[in-house]
Here is the input.
Amino acid sequence: MPTDTEQSLDEIDVGDPKNWGDGAPHEIFKRLRSECPVHWSEINDYPDEAGFWSVVTADDVHTVSRDWRTFSSERGGCMALTHAIPLELMTSMFIAMDPPKHDRLKALFQRGFTPKRIAMHEDEIRAIVVKVLDRLEGRETADVIDDIAQPVVSRVISSFMGIPEEDDKVWATLVNTTLGVGDEELAPGGLEKVLAEDFPEIFRRAQAMIDDRRENPTDDLTSVLVHAEIDGEMLADHEIVMGFFLLVAAGNDSTKATFTSGMKALLDHPDQMRELVEDPSLIPGAIEECLRMFPAFANFRRTATKDTEVHGHPIAEGDKVLMWYVSSNRDETRYEDPDVFDIHRNPEHQAFGAGGRHFCLGTALARLELKVLFEETLKRYPNMKPNGEAKPASTAFLNQFKTLPVRLG
Ligand code: HEM
Here is the structure.
């Protein structure tokens, strides 16, 4: 991990891919929390993009996250790069809308995502996990992502969306490339290819499903979007496609990332893995520690709608502000020994956002998927061991591994 003690604070570009080659640069964030909790970075790799303020403490992330009037998700989107996708497409997803439209769209889904409604899917999710693990029978080695996490999370969100199983892989690839820009393995060809090939492909595939649901309404979430009326108006096709993509992307990516990082931590701490094997009732608490230590999204972005200040630091109207959950979740004013993985900590954290309008829609689903994934995987493979290098993604957005090779044992 680069320890950047030589660099002056002014020189640090927090999002520079060079800082993320070995995963999140926790040494840099530690330094910012103590010396410069509101810090300015230029984006050197994309000269057309304005730089950004980094907000790195739990209190400050909370402040920004809750004040949507001052810190807009819509004005420049919710990603550090304003041009990661055309702004009109970005702001067709409710994650990148402000109230009132945000609230009306989110409300279409909220009832189906409460812990009680999600709990009704437990048997279905367990059957998916068991089926995926059954495919490993007879094998000695596997990759936790390709062979367990990805196929499970893809099938779960696909079943919510009404995507047929044979299309799971292609959607997973489209999500990995569009979100993974910056990492050549996740997104070969980078932003150019994503814009020229992947988004047209997403539109083509989603449009076919939309046309079908118009003719044949079903009870899946794609149908909910197709038939939604917001203030008496149906959504435009590009809004339906992007609403669909938001759910597919959110469902495909982050739960996989958290499960894999959690498994890696358990493989690195066999004593704690043993405890979970022997007492699965500890799993829900362990999941909260995985979410704290390894938030699947390193950051989300806001844009200041007026001149304001955070932590006594002036921020001008139009400035980008990045909330770094990878940092706030290790804020030493909230956590003792924040870099220590401890399944008994059962912490509060900001992996799902820090409250406010955009708090993650999928928390109950993610927690249930993680619980079933850990329960079934540890039951089936209580002696799993590492089997080679786990490679982290080198992007400042996706805080995840690309591979986690294991000996099933
Ligand atoms: C461990 C898994 C997950 C993590 C760490 C995670 C994290 C997050 C975070 C940090 C946000 C806040 C974005 C912001 O403030 O701008 C968010 C929003 C969102 N998440 Fe999740 N998420 C996870 C799983 C899921 C799943 C399974 C779904 C399934 C549908 C989902 C759907 C969404 C949606 C739709 C939003 C936008 C909410 C809004 O703008 O109001 N997430 N998520």
User: Anything to note?
Assistant: The domain at 21-388+396-407 is CATH 1.10.630.10 (Cytochrome p450). The chain has one domain: 21-388+396-407.
